[in-house]
Design goal:
This is Plastid lipid-associated protein/fibrillin conserved domain-containing protein. The protein is 29% helix and 30% strand. The chain is an alpha+beta fold. Strands 1-3-4-5-6-7-8-9 form an eight-stranded antiparallel β-barrel. A hairpin with a 2-residue loop joins strand 5 and strand 6. Helix 1 crosses helix 2.
Length: 273
Amino acid sequence: MSQEDLMAAARKRLVELATSAMTPPASETERELLAALVTSVQQQGQRPLTDVFADLALGGDWALIYSPTARGGTPLPLSAGGPLPPAADGSVAMDNGGHLTFGRIGQSVASDKRLFANYAEWTLVLDGAEYTGVMLILCGYRYGPTGWEVQLLEHQLRPGRDKEAGSSTPAFPADVEGLVQVLTRTLPREFFDPDAARVGLAYVDPTLRLDLFGDTRYGGVRNVFVRRSADTPADGWRTSEIVADLLAERAAYVYDPASDEAEAAAAAEPSGE
């Protein structure tokens, strides 16, 4: 088998083993194999040489299949304020008796606007009612010497499906704050709060992408994405429509790191009260 065949086999096995960042392999052996496969792909070092080629490579919808910081892989201890450890399917039992599961988790990149939206579909069953929603993390970026420089723009929580006719269930549970806290602790850290991150494209081809974080917050963290097919069934979810609308709303966005600095300076000033 040639070196090229070996590299292709590693990429194929990686995609087979990692189906979603929220449902890592159950066994320690498989998790170690997965990390080794990620390293193998990283070492293949296929990356765009210019910003133009990076734009062409990045644009589109990507499913996040690997992150070492997802709580499915590294649950926070209860003493640290984390949720109960996820089950094998990545679901989380909440303190209020709710049961939270995840659907598609990914990233939609509008490279022509230098914007991207991270999204995570969730379903919460609580007190006999079912709620569905999409957690959205909208960001802008620019290319720097070491990769993308990310600017967090906003978080949004939106209903994931159209309400059934005659349904009296509200869009969200009464304790929205508690839901957001669990989402914050359960989703990959660099996915939920990527502000000021510096992300290098360690590997990219038409269907597979490996990001390597190089900043002080997430340095060394690796994310693996696979391109999501345009004909992927929506199963009633409005995620694609919601993400497209969100990106369109910010069509005039221009990366402005000075705005972050101004906000930080204003927050540091005494109130005078």
